[in-house]
Amino acid sequence: MPHLPATTPLDIQLRRPYTSLGVFLPAGMTDSADEQRTIDALADNGVDLFEIGVPCRTPFLDGPVIASAYYEALARGTHVRDVLGTVSYASRRAPVVVMPYWESVALYRPRRFAREMKTVGAAGIMVVDLPDAQARTWADTLAEAGLSSPRLVPPHTTDDTLAQACATASGWLYAPAAAHEPTGYQGPLDLAAPARSVRRLRKASALPVVAGIGISTPALARAVAPLVNGVMVGSLIVGALASTGREAAAGLVADFATAVGTPVAEASHG
């Protein structure tokens, strides 16, 4: 299997002693000029990493906010070729991980998808519903393209599946804070649960750990941040962009950036 270089944009960002803030942004919510202004506003207010979502007709792991953004993007005619433009611009401001469903990758063809995303500046691709049967081939494809292959690892993952995920991952392991919820979950969190999940991932792999799904307030982000290398927020920012506009979304990003700007606990790296 080809190997990525020892130092990648994700390694540089996620192995620093401070927790990074990632923001999820669906491609195609608005026209490209407006989208670029949004990317700049979010980056200027504290984004360390961008996750760029590829619109999908059946986003079964996503809640209503992101699903609605995807449907609207598709109604506007957004295609993978348009996502390439989003990734190209966002990667000038921060490392970008592209987040498609496998359906989009398969239809575009995996090698072509990886190669073109690398060409426009992506640092990695995390397929949120990556089939187990495709995991090794997909990891090889990304490595050949020079891209990281982050993996989503739910807390209920079996030991065997966890071992496979770690063996086919690079860049980071993604730990949902809300174990059985879709994106956009805003209910209470049992903070002991993500702490256990993160400890389990760190025992299984030396990769950085990123937490998301359910981190719906700066206070929750502040509580989770010392455990992980990165905190991801999405639906709250996407909802603000759709309802109250760019300035409000940028203000939320600034609040989250302040909340997570805390040293990563020494124990969390063990």
Write up this protein:
- This protein is α/β, with parallel strands linked by helices and 270 residues long.
- It has one domain: Alpha-Beta Barrel (TIM Barrel).
- Helix content is 46%, strand content 12%.
- Strands 4-3-2-1-8-7-6-5 form an 8-stranded parallel sheet.
- β6 (173-176), α9 (192-204) and β7 form a beta-alpha-beta unit.
- α10 packs parallel to α12 (246-260).
- The longest helix is centred in the last third of the chain and has 15 residues, at 246-260.
Note the topology.
Layout: H1 9-14, E1 20-26, H2 32-44, E2 49-53, H3 64-75, H4 80-90, E3 96-99, H5 102-108, H6 110-119, E4 124-125, H7 135-145, E5 151-152, H8 159-167, E6 173-176, H9 192-204, E7 209-212, H10 218-224, E8 230-233, H11 235-243, H12 246-260
Parallel strand pairs: 1-2, 1-8, 2-3, 3-4, 5-6, 6-7, 7-8
Largest sheet: 8 strands, parallel
Kindly provide the name of the CATH class: Alpha Beta
Assigned CATH superfamily: Aldolase class I
What is the alpha-carbon Rg in Å?
A: 17 Å
Helicity level, as a percent range?
Answer: 40-55%
Q: Which regions are unreliable across 5 or more consecutive residues at pLDDT < 50?
A: 265-270
CATH architecture, by name, is Alpha-Beta Barrel
DSSP summary: helix tally: 12
User: Topology as H/E string?
Assistant: HEHEHHEHHEHEHEHEHEHH
Overall number of domains: 1
Q: Roughly what fraction of the amino acids lie in strands?
A: 5-15%
Number-wise, the strands total 8
Looking at the structure, the CATH topology is TIM Barrel
Tell me the strand order in the biggest sheet.
4-3-2-1-8-7-6-5
SSE-based structural type: alpha/beta
Global morphology: globular
Question: Could you tell me how far the N terminus lies from the C terminus, measured between alpha carbons in angstroms?
Answer: 27 Å
Q: What is the typical, i.e. mean, pLDDT?
A: 91
